Structures are given as structure tokens and as C-alpha cells.
Amino acid sequence: MPNPLGEVGSYALEHRNRSWSSVGYRRFSLYLDKLQAYPIKRLASTEEWEAADLMRVLIVLGLREAFQDTEHLTKRLKHSGFVSHMLRPFKAEIASSVIMDLRLPEGLATIVDIYARKTAASRNQALRELILAGTKTYCEAELSFHKALKASRTEEESRSGQQSSA
To answer: Can you point out the beta strands (E) in the chain?
Structure first.
């Protein structure tokens, strides 16, 4: 199935030969609801990350999740043309939001911009959705890792118990 966001692939091909020193960053002020911002800050502190670094990882994981669900993405892209204008949040919603500064590499920022434009979402809305999807993926992977670690420890304990009884 062809990539519904074909512009992203062409951007990557055009810019893959750029040196890392020439890659710029774009600064964003991300408005997150308090219920979204505080778990991210708490997760960052428990994992000993900077919140901005964690959000960059979550955005990439969210993009991976969005691109894997091509059926949902295709439907969303198909119906995005029907959205004639963006609804702006109420002032009360902005007042209860937490502003988090975020710097994204130019390539990642361009991919987010294209994703937002193609899905008829504001950049802030697209970033919030991607961070939410990335958080889900991150937590599921961490849970799987802890389950595998626990299973391997249980297996080692059972082996050592069998050897000591023999």
C-alpha cells in the first residue's frame, strides 16, 4: 500500500545527505491539558529524562503508531478535506493548560507539520495526539520488558532451586 503521506518520504530522500551540523531545530510552545502534562513530567522524572527529550521520543513513537494503522490514517486523510475551519479552544481551556517548550529537529518538525496539515489538525492538536499515542506505546513496551524480566528471574530461581536440591 502506498504511503498516504508521500511528502514525508520525499523530504527524507532530499535531506538524507545533510550533515548533522547543518540540521536546525524548531521551537514550539505546546499547550497540554494538566491531565496530560503532569503524567509526562512524572514519567520523565522517574525515568530520569528531561521532559522535552521524553516528548521527542513519544512523538516519534506516536508517528510510528499512526503510520502502522494505515486504514485509520487513510480514512482520516480522506475526510480531512471536509473540515472547513479549525475550532479554537475556549479561553478557559487555554487558562487551564500547561505550556511546555519543545524543540524538534527540522526533519521531525516538518513531518509533524505535514501530518497536521494532511489530517486537518492544528500543529498543537497533532502533537498532543502523537504524544498520547507515543505514551501508550512507551508504557506498553516498558510493561512487556518488566514482565519478561520477571519471567527470566523466576526461571533462574527455579533452576538454581533445582540444582541446590540435587
So the answer is: 25-33, 97-105
Is the pLDDT assigned to residue 10 strictly greater than 60?
no
Position 155 confidence tier, pLDDT thresholds 50, 70, 90: confident
Asked if 139 and 62 count as a contact pair (C-beta separation under 8 A), the reply is no
Residue with cell 496539515: 117
DSSP 44-81: HHHTT--HHHHHHHHHHHHHHHHHH-HHHHHHHHHHGG
Helix (H, G, I), strand (E, B) or coil at 16: coil
The count of other CB atoms within 10 Å of the CB of residue 109 is 20
Q: Under DSSP, is residue 23 helix (H, G, I), strand (E, B) or coil? A: coil
Cα(35)–Cα(31) distance, integer angstroms:
12
Grid cell 523530504 — which residue? Answer: 11
Strand partners, 102: 28
Residue 90 reports pLDDT greater than 60: no
Instruction: HSE, CB side, 13 Å, CA atoms: give it for residue 95.
Output: 3
